[in-house]
Here is the input.
Amino acid sequence: MNILGIETSCDETAAAIVTDGRRIVSNIVASQIEIHKAFGGVVPEVASRHHVESVTRVVDEAFRAAKMSWEDVDVIAVTCGPGLLGALLVGLSAAKGYALATGLPLVGVHHIAGHVAAAMLTDEGHLPALALVVSGGHTELLRISEDFRFARLGGTIDDAAGEAYDKVARLLGLPYPGGPEVDALAAKGDKDAFSFPKSLLDDPSYNFSFSGLKTAVANTLTKKRNAREDISVADVCASFQKAVTEVLVEKTARAVLETGLRDVVLAGGVAANSGLRAALLARADSDGFRLHMPPLALCTDNAAMIAAAGYYAFRRGAVHSLSLNAYATLSMDRWQTDAQL
Ligand code: KG4
Ligand code: ZN
Here is the structure.
């Protein structure tokens, strides 16, 4: 079964064709990062306009790269939320237009289900599992059933992990998106130079909080600057990364113990973080669980992951009518209920 995936929830216009949720036939991503860099972050209205300009071209490119035509496609999968509403609506409208013109079934996909499915594109057979999804917009700890249904264990109560990276990078004068910049500098710094708060580490819930950490970094920088002391940006990055990573790893390891699940999927843009990958791998080794991570190129937003998640949802009977809407906020539960998953 060939699925065309379309993703426009943030600042990447993406289209891909994936066979049986496993084999990527084509995967085109038109990133707007260079455009948003000038503003230090994603400007929603600018993102929507660029999606409008790019979406049909990107879909055409996905067909060209796959050497396929519409006759070869069985299902259209599109991100319907969560994300920037205007941006989502562009991809959704395009997908509906294609579905109307071709008569192909349409499946709306939850963006986080997509991130999780990215790990299954290259590495099969690990469901049921836990998933830690960490991106610019989300930090979620989920339980995934054998048939790709999701139950939420917890998540951030304020900033997402990637958002904290981007905000700290901004405080340090590093370009957007800050995650990769902080990651690279952290490798050169002393992670014990500063003691930043590890919020909710000892809290029994599976919730996270990163806004206090960002404030702690801001206060440290202000104090140092006021005292005219030198600041080692690498040390700040390393200490910040340690604080983020420790809480993520600790809560994931605790969820492994409490649920008895031995497979963990790490997904989302922050899954590209080398410190987090290394720390979670070490913990998997010592605690005896298996870690599944998408290759770096599939960690950040792409449409192959949406096509893959669409495949699993479609196989379970999910089909949406042309009245499908886009949602800026969308819980996994709401998506699963609406899609009758
Ligand atoms: O999944 P994604 O492309 O978009 C969302 O769904 O949000 O994630 C983008 C986020 C950004 O916040 C970016 O700074 C972060 O992922 N990111 C990283 C790294 N690469 C991307 N954060 C930390 N370390 C990285 N290497
Ligand atoms: Zn994402």
